[in-house]
Amino acid sequence: MVSPAKLKKLSHEHGTPLFVVDHAELRKNFKQFKKYLPRVQPYYAMKANPAPAIVRTLYKAGASFDVASMPEFLIVHENIKNLSAKQRQDFIWDKIIYAHPIKAIKTLKELDQYKPLVTYDNAEEIGKIKKYAPNAGLALRLKVPNTGAMVELSSKFGAEPGEAVELMLKAKNAGLGVEGISFHVGSQTTNFQNYVQAIQLSSSIFKESESRGLKLKLLDIGGGFPAPYDDGVKPFKELAAVLNSELDRLFPKEVEILAEPGRYMVATAATLVASVIGKAIRDGKLCYYIDDGVYHTYSGIIFDHCKYNVHTFKKGRGGATQICSVFGPTCDALDTISLSAELPENLQLGDLVYTPNIGAYSQASSTYFNGFPPAKVVHINEE
Ligand SMILES: Cc1ncc(COP(=O)(O)O)c(C=O)c1O
After folding, report:
1. Which positions of the chain have pLDDT values less than 70?
2. Beta carbon of 263 within 6 Å of any ligand 1 atom
């Protein structure tokens, strides 16, 4: 995490709420991912935080990208617009996946000129892609267990394993290029068995598909790689060891393996600094009001089902803390950051509080509700 002294200095310079993005941490996360999963090419899932500066840093580090809307695609495209037409096309084909199984016709029409790789999970979508983006390559999104993930995705997307080969043959017979399979085990997956089961399922689908005349080239193991929000999250190295052994056991070297990490790349790269703007005792409990909340950087509490800790730079008398409520600045009671924050009782108006590891699914879903704009963003250690 960025040092307390630096966070204080930046807040004095820029005011609060302040979202501090540390690009050295982004580069470190990317490097770690590559180090522990050497066979897997990371496609940064930019929905986690689409800030162009973040995308640029990861682009320079050699990342590929998972995009799920035209605006996201165009943010990546900004980085390659000066390449030759051939280099640009090679980059799009090799390094971008449009990983949204349901695409509007308008999107498909726009995408077709770029000949991207796209995911799909149903027959209706095959008809749409055939008609509006026939140059796209296809990866079938498979439904896999999301047991124990913080964010479940399997109720919304994914072909049933029993239909997978049929859906791929149907696309092939429609004249489309089917490249492989993708899955997502659920975001913030601390249950590593989800990956093991999904990889094993994919392997059996690869085999069945080959026996029916369709040889697949690519496996996309999706996102879900957990951020170290608390001590209960096992180190990435341990997950990587499990993945490496399953991938090497079940997939020959020539199968290309990719992944779509979002949270893992960006969660630890940002810290939010906010100020105490109010203080009250309600039903005997100390309540702090701060200038950022769940309609803003803490929106992950609602959309991402994530719990955040609020810390202070100031020590209580004798180091004492008590259970407090922490509320955001809006008029809505939903704007509750925590009902059980351990904070000292001596915070004063204007004192700073901070939340580390808040880079993913936070600022990305911040709103202007109640007239409060999203936190100011500062980028540090950019290269
Ligand atoms: C298709 C897809 N890929 C990747 C991601 C990123 O997941 P994570 O942030 O858990 O790595 C998501 C998140 O919802 C997703 O829907």
Report:
1. none
2. yes
